[in-house]
Specification:
Pathway: Amino-acid biosynthesis; L-methionine biosynthesis via salvage pathway; L-methionine from S-methyl-5-thio-alpha-D-ribose 1-phosphate: step 1/6. This protein is α/β, with parallel strands linked by helices. It has 2 domains: 131 residues, translation initiation factor eif-2b, domain 1 (Four Helix Bundle (Hemerythrin (Met), subunit A)), CATH 1.20.120.420; 202 residues, Rossmann fold. The chain has 11 helices and 15 strands. A 7-stranded mixed β-sheet has the order 6-5-4-7-10-14-15. A 3-stranded antiparallel β-sheet has the order 1-2-3, covered by helices on one side. A 3-stranded antiparallel β-sheet has the order 8-9-13, with helices on one face. α7 links the parallel β5 and β6. The radius of gyration is 20 Å and the shape is globular. The N and C termini lie far apart (46 Å). The structure holds 5-S-methyl-1-O-phosphono-5-thio-D-ribulose. 5-S-methyl-1-O-phosphono-5-thio-D-ribulose binds next to α2 and β9.
């Protein structure tokens, strides 16, 4: 087991900067194997995002930022034309890695702003600025998760049994997690919290990643297949639902892992609060409503089987949308680093941005 330290550090270092390269835990092979893969260019990082070595909205944003920083360092000895062209390509390849999580585009925008502001400098200075910004995006994410964790922890009563879907933990962020960050923060305040983890078909982020994170920290966790949530709610075994988000629209609609919408409908039916943990980097001020959020469609093989084992009838047609939209009306509250937004709507959300 990994040793966890309380305070700002968590033992799960989803991404880490080591001697000029980015290392990321290979989340495709957890929990069977715990190993890091090393990255030295934007193209490699984009492939790491696309293939789910790293996943989870804030972690994808951080990885993309480091991808741009790596590209600038890789091109340091190139002439200006090659440097500029390489940077443009780096941004493009990262922007097309996955479509739904807005943190990716949010982080790339920040990196673009820094590049634009420093184009007159030497390539070495530009590379230093890009790396400093990537580190800042990373540190901010941990700080924000800690802040929203504290807000969310206050909403959970001692003894709460909390259902979560997918993995919105340290593995999905720079550290601490969003939904699991709230649970961690509640536990740190002395509350006894137990977690019910949906396995999260088809990629099994709940069974493989959430369960693993909670077991590491001895936070009681019970794994269920996704189709068991309604039954447990009807038996009075769930007190709250806390999930993360990939993109929140201005009207409060939430894009999150496929199956989240089903959980939200069930929670409403059973009068169970449905909380969405989301840093402001996950809210898209340019997206008026959920219907316009691009939903990634992934490979049929994720549904017909897992890894080498394929169990579905050969020749069957398959749909594999990776995310769904939970309408704002089903969201009891958004939990952000700036506070709690109950029954979110456009006015309350824009207030978070000072508008
Ligand atoms: O396909 P994934 O694993 O990247 O999807 C992840 C989720 O849906 C998470 O709930 C979301 O990104 C929030 S992570 C803090």
């Amino acid at each position: 087991m990994l040793g966890y330290a309380h305070g700002l550090n968590t033992a799960v270092e989803t991404l880490r900067w080591r001697e000029g390269s980015l290392e990321m835990i290979d989340q495709r092979v957890l929990p069977d194997r715990f190993e890091y893969l090393s990255y030295t260019s934007a193209t490699e990082v984009a492939e790491g995002i696309r293939s789910m070595v790293v996943r989870g909205a804030p972690a994808i944003g951080c990885a993309a930022a480091y991808g741009v920083a790596l590209e600038s360092a890789r091109l340091i000895h190139a002439c200006s034309e090659v440097f500029d062209a390489g940077m443009e390509t780096g941004f493009e390849v990262l922007a097309t890695s996955r479509p739904t999580a807005v943190n990716l585009f949010w982080a790339l925008n920040r990196m673009q702003t820094v590049w634009d502001a420093n184009r007159h400098r030497s390539k070495r200075e530009i590379a230093d600025c890009m790396l400093a910004e990537a580190h800042e995006i990373f540190s901010e994410d941990v700080r924000n998760n800690r802040a929203l964790g504290a807000y969310g922890a206050a909403l959970l009563s001692d003894g709460a049994r909390v259902l979560t879907h997918c993995n919105a933990g340290a593995l999905a962020t720079a550290g601490h997690g969003t939904a699991l960050g709230i649970i961690r923060s509640a536990v740190e305040t002395g509350k006894s919290i137990s977690v019910i983890a949906d396995e999260t078909r088809p990629f099994l982020q709940g069974a493989r990643l959430t369960a693993w994170e909670m077991v590491q920290e001895c936070i009681p966790v019970t794994l269920i297949a996704d189709n068991m949530a309604g039954h447990l709610m009807s038996c009075g075994e769930i007190d709250a639902v806390v999930v993360g988000a990939d993109r929140v629209a201005v009207n409060g609609d939430v894009a999150n892992k496929i199956g989240t919408y089903m959980v939200a409908v069930l929670a409403q039916r059973h009068n169970i609060p449905f909380y969405v943990a989301c840093p402001l980097s996950t809210i898209d001020p340019g997206m008026p409503e959920g219907a316009a959020i691009p939903i990634e469609e992934r490979s049929a093989m994720e549904v017909t089987g897992f890894r080498e084992c394929q169990w579905a009838a050969k020749g069957v047609q398959v749909r594999n949308p990776a995310f769904d939209i939970t309408p704002a009306g089903l969201v009891t509250a958004l939990i952000t680093e700036k506070g709690i937004v109950s029954w979110p709507n456009a006015e309350k959300i824009m207030r978070l941005f000072g508008v």
